[in-house]
Amino acid sequence: MRRGKQSRKYLLRGNSRASLHIKPMAVLIDTLTDAAGPLRHPEKAHRPDQPALRKPDWIRVKAPVSAGYLNTQRIVRANGLHTVCEEAGCPNIGECWEQKHATFMIMGDTCTRACAFCNVKTGLPGALDPVEPEHVAEATRKLGLAHIVITSVDRDDLDDGGAGHFAAVIGAIRARCPTTTIEVLTPDFLRKDGAAETVVAARPDVFNHNLETVPSKYLTVRPGARYFASIRLLQRVKDIDPQMFTKSGIMVGLGEERNEILQVMDDLRAAGVDFLTIGQYLQPSRKHHPVVRFVPPDEFKALETIAYAKGFLMVAASPLTRSSHHAGEDFARLKALRTAR
Q1: Are strands 206-208 and 181-185 parallel, antiparallel or unpaired?
Q2: Is residue 130 left, alpha or beta, with left meaning phi > 0 and alpha meaning psi from -120 to 50?
C-alpha cells in the first residue's frame, strides 16, 4: 500500500506519468477500501467483478446535503459512534438524517462475518468500548429521539455474541432518555446460549432480526448464518415474552423465486413475527453479489397484500424499504394496530 500512497501524492502534484500508472488500481481502491487505505473486504478482493445492472428510475434518491443531515452527522462524530446508515451505504440516509433519525451500530465497525450482500467492513474486531453505552445514550438525548434503533456487527468472537453489550446500551438509554422507545436489530447469536434471554430481559420495545434472503440463497448470500437458527431466534423471543413486538426483513432481487418468498412469510408467521419488511437488494460494489433483478413497485405491493393476508400485523414493502426506515412511525402504528385487534 506504500506504493499506492506515493502514487496518490504524485497525482495531486499533477505527475502525468504516475497518474497513468495508478489508473488501473483506482477502481479496486475506491470499491474495497476505506479512505485510510486498509482493505474493507479482504475476502472479496480477489473475486471476479460481478455485473452491475443500471438502476431504474424508481430506485434513485437525492444526495444528502441538508442542514439537518449535517447536524446529525456532527452529533454522531462527536460521540465517536458508528451508524449502519453509513457503514452499509443505506440509500435513505439523507431523508432519515435530515429528520435526526439514525440507526446506531454498536460494538465497532468490523464484522466477523463476510456476507456477500453487505458493505460493513470484515475482519477481526477490537475490544468492546465500555463507555459506548453512555455515548449512545448521550447522542439519543442530543438528537431528541422519540424512538431509536440499535444494531450491531456480528461478534462471533465474544462468548455471548455481544448480548450483554446490547443490554448495557438499552439500560443506558432508559436511564438518560426514559420516554424513548427502543428497537434492537440483532445478529443471529449463532451458538450463543442465553443471548436471546439477555437481550429480552433488558426490555427493548421491538426485537428485530433479519432473515435477509430465502433459504436456498444462504450458502452464497449469507454463508456464515443458518436460516432455521434465525427463525428459532425470533420464535425464542416470543416464547420468552409473547407481548414483545418482533420484526424481520428480507431483500429481493437476489435470484429468489416468488414461491420461496411466500414460504419465508409462512415460516415467520409460524414463529409469531409481527412485522415484515421487504426491500430491493442494492449491490455495494462489483465484488458483492450481483443484483439479479430490480423488482418493480407493483410486485412489492402484491407481496405486501399477500403478507397481510397471511396474518402479519404490519408490512412494509417497497424498493427502498429498509429495516429501520420510518421505524418510529412504524412502531406507533404497530401499537395502534395491536390495540385495535
Answers
A1: parallel
A2: alpha
Sign of the Cα pseudo-torsion (198, 201, 207, 213, in order): positive
Query: Partners of 207 in the beta sheet?
Result: 184, 246
CA distances, 157 to each of 83, 111, 153, 208, 248 (Å): 21, 10, 11, 22, 24
What predicted TM-score, i.e. pTM, was given to this entire model? Answer: 0.82
Q: Which of 183, 177, 255 is nearest to 218 (CA)?
A: 255
303/317 Cα distance (integer angstroms)? 7
Identify whether the C-beta of residue 21 lies closer than 8 Å to the C-beta of residue 6: no
pLDDT at 28: 34
pLDDT 10s digits, 235-253:
999 999 999 999 999 999 9
**CB environment 47-65: b (16+ within 10 A), e (fewer):** eeeeeeeebeeebeeeebe
* Residue 169 · residue 284 · CB < 8 Å: no
What is the reported pLDDT for 82?
75
Measuring CA to CA, which residue among 135, 52, 120, 124 is closest to residue 84?
A: 120
Calculate what percentage of the chain has a pLDDT beyond 90: 60
**Of 7-21, 99-113, 143-157, 322-336, which gets the smallest average pLDDT?**
7-21
The letter for the amino acid at 314 is: M
Helix, strand or coil for residue 55? coil
Q: What is the per-residue pLDDT across 64-114, written as a single tens digit (0 to 9) for each?
A: 667 777 777 777 777 777 776 666 566 666 666 666 677 889 999 899 998
Please say whether the beta carbons of 217 and 254 come within 8 A. Answer: yes
Find where cell 470499491 sits.
31
Residues 6+ apart with CB under 8 A from 127: none
Q: Please give the DSSP secondary-structure letter assigned to residue 285.
A: S
Do 331 and 206 contact (CB within 8 A), yes or no? yes
